[in-house]
Amino acid sequence: GVEVGPQPQGVARADILDKMRKIVKHGLDFVQLFNEGKEFPPCTIEVFKIMEKVDYPRNKNDEIIAIIHPKLQDQDWQPLNNGDPLFLTLDGKVIPYQGNCTVYPTFINEAAYYEKKQAFVKTERIKLTAKHLRSSVS
């Protein structure tokens, strides 16, 4: 499966659909070239590895007491450093990020995740290295 977003639930966006088509086409091109015996050289790519899901701050009755800070909203995949604004309480107090390393939040404030108690997902940026690849089928 391929998930391309973000986009609101029930909304079809031409730009997102175009990105999805391009991703699927690249995947199918790779499969065809691999099946034809093309050798792919070693490569290194940066990826984002999920560290943990982060919930909204809640009170003792399990009610959300803060929202995503405006400086974090729409900043998926951007670095979040210790002390950066994270949440904003309903009475205007800033709750900063408290972490010992830079993280890269994603799925920030997505409506589909409210019921899952997820304000965003913390990821870390890592490098993966792949050896050369070639089909063993002739």
Plain-language structure description:
The chain has 138 residues and is an alpha+beta fold. It folds into two domains: 1-38; 43-130, N-terminal domain of TfIIb (Single Sheet), CATH 2.20.25.160. Helices cover 16% and strands 25% of the residues. The strands form two sheets. The chain has a three-stranded antiparallel sheet with strand order 2-3-4, with no helix packed on it. A two-stranded antiparallel sheet has the order 1-5. It starts with 13 loop residues before the first helix and ends in an 8-residue tail after the last strand. The mean pLDDT is 91.
Percent of residues in β-strands: 15-25%
Span between N and C termini? 28 Å
Query: Which CATH C-level class of the largest domain is it?
Result: Mainly Beta
Contiguous runs where pLDDT drops below 50 for at least 5 residues: none
Number of helices: 1
The pLDDT mean sits at: 91
Overall outline: elongated
Radius of gyration, CA atoms, in whole angstroms: 20 Å
Work out the number of β strands: 5
CATH structural fold name of the largest domain = N-terminal domain of TfIIb
InterPro entries: AspA/AstE_fam, Aste_AspA_hybrid_dom
GO molecular function, one term: hydrolase activity, acting on carbon-nitrogen (but not peptide) bonds, in linear amides
Domain AstE/AspA barrel-sandwich hybrid: 44-125
Protein name: ACY2 Aspartoacylase
